[in-house]
């Protein structure tokens, strides 16, 4: 029997596309965590801002919770609908709306894929510099909701640096235009920055005006093999001093083995415990020689065991695949993921303490980790053994995460660097934010979403 609430929504919006088939409910009701059984009420696919507003107003009147949905590539359960929520997918709102050559901005609908944004910027001789492996499926709205970072944060920063303005539907159904693309705007609170990283708990982003910039200089890509963990920061300090870095990514031998098994090509012979993929400006022979000299110095110091410099774009892509292919290669194992960050200066001490913690608490479990060493962000992937049932595995991982959160707290770090809090990490929020901060955050949420309909249960357990 059809739900009368959906029948009413259809009367309010006769042209709205609503999905209720079991396959659609399962597909749209979960993200990459795969830990919760999806059970949404239905999937709404609005085609424009007016339809989004009407859906939110209907949801307020009928007290139906809404889970905003983009590409659902998140890893923290932020897009999960497991308790009869209405999933509001923005995938039909995926157009480029405007390009301003003077302001160098691109205005897009929130459902547009990051890869499409890159292509649109390229057509105008510019780039949108935020980038990561899920570019083909993640959406700009989702990127904004989690303040996504990626592989080039060291040069360009996170998503929030590149949002000139937004249009947002608040929890009460009001359309709010934030900042209007202004470079300078000291007229009170910047709600734009407040909404970035709010995980859909304050409002639904429907449009974004993105800042564009010049393409980076000609670059080279280098793969380095390192003999030990301490060498990571020594090589980073050396390269950051001598070269204009665009990226500096590391991964372990365990991560490499998974990517090679997934079809990537080995680039350095032999087995090495750690690897770095780095990209740097190489406009002229002087910069190229500086890179070679930095590599030779690292080799002499024993910080590097081997290395290779890409000689073509194809080879550069092959080297980058060793890093970017890690998440995809691990996906079939449904890893339990930690996404943490500390100040760059705290990385060495934290790495040692983290390594000891993981070795002690996961003696029989494979742990694959990698990260953006240049911004202090580490990704820890715990792989469930086949003989360990899911419930016991999750319980053990949550025990270790509590210990990891305490370690992060001692080092002044964060339990979530770029994936958000969602359902997975909300129990550990106090390791990153004080009780007073959390109370203020909950108060802000009630102002934007007085009836608590937007993504309830995410970020906070209540409130």
From TrEMBL:
Belongs to the FAD-binding oxidoreductase/transferase type 4 family. SUPFAM superfamilies: FAD-binding/transporter-associated domain-like, FAD-linked oxidases, C-terminal domain. Keywords: FAD, Flavoprotein, Oxidoreductase. GO terms for molecular function: FAD binding; oxidoreductase activity. Residues 36-215 form the FAD-binding PCMH-type domain. GO terms for biological process: respiratory electron transport chain. InterPro entries: FAD-bd_oxidored_4_C (IPR004113), FAD-bd_PCMH (IPR016166), FAD-bd_PCMH-like_sf (IPR036318), FAD-bd_PCMH_sub1 (IPR016167), FAD-bd_PCMH_sub2 (IPR016169), FAD-linked_Oxase-like_C (IPR016164), FAD-oxidored/transferase_4 (IPR051264), Oxid_FAD_bind_N (IPR006094). This is FAD-binding oxidoreductase. Its cofactor is FAD. Gene3D superfamilies: 3.30.465.10, 3.30.70.2190, 3.30.70.2740, Uridine Diphospho-n-acetylenolpyruvylglucosamine Reductase, domain 2, Vanillyl-alcohol Oxidase, Chain A, domain 4.
């Amino acid at each position: 029997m059809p739900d009368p609430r959906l029948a009413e929504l259809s009367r309010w919006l006769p042209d709205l596309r609503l999905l209720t088939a079991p396959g659609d409910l399962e597909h749209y009701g979960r993200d990459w965590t795969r830990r919760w059984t999806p059970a949404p009420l239905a999937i709404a696919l609005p085609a424009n801002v007016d339809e989004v507003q009407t859906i939110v107003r209907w949801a307020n009147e009928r007290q139906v919770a809404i889970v905003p949905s983009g590409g659902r590539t998140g890893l923290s359960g932020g897009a999960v609908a497991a308790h009869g929520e209405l999933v509001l997918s923005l995938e039909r709102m995926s157009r480029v709306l405007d390009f301003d050559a003077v302001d160098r901005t691109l205005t897009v609908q929130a459902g547009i894929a990051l890869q499409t944004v890159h292509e649109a910027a390229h057509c105008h001789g510019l780039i949108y510099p935020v980038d990561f492996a899920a570019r083909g499926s993640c959406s700009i709205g989702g990127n904004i909701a989690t303040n996504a970072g990626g592989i080039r944060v060291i040069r360009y920063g996170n998503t929030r640096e590149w949002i000139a303005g937004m249009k947002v539907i608040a929890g009460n159904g009001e359309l709010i235009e934030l900042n209007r693309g202004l470079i300078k705007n000291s007229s009170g609170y910047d709600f734009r920055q407040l909404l970035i990283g709010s995980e859909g708990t304050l409002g639904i982003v429907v449009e974004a005006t993105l800042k564009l910039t010049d393409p980076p200089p000609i670059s080279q890509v280098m793969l380095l093999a390192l003999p030990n963990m301490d060498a990571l920061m020594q090589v980073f300090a050396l390269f950051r001093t001598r070269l204009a870095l665009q990226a500096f990514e590391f991964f372990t031998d365990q991560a490499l083995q998974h990517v090679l098994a997934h079809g990537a090509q080995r680039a350095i012979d032999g087995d090495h415990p750690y690897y770095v993929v780095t990209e740097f400006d190489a406009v002229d022979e002087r910069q190229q020689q500086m890179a070679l000299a930095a590599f030779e110095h690292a080799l002499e110091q024993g910080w590097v065991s081997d290395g290779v410099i890409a000689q073509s774009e194809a080879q550069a892509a092959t080297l980058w695949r060793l890093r970017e292919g890690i998440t995809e290669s691990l996906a079939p194992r449904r890893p339990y993921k930690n996404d943490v960050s500390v100040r760059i200066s705290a990385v060495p001490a934290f790495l040692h303490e983290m390594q000891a913690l993981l070795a002690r608490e996961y003696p029989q479990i494979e742990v694959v980790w990698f990260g953006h060493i240049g911004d202090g962000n580490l990704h820890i992937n715990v792989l469930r053994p086949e003989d360990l049932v899911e419930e016991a595995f999750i319980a053990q991982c949550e025990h270790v995460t509590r210990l990891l959160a305490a370690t992060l707290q001692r080092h002044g770090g964060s339990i979530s660097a770029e994936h958000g809090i969602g359902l997975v990490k909300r129990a550990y929020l106090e390791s990153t934010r004080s009780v007073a901060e959390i109370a203020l955050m909950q108060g802000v949420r009630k102002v934007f979403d007085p009836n608590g309909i937007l993504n309830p249960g995410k970020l906070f357990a209540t409130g």
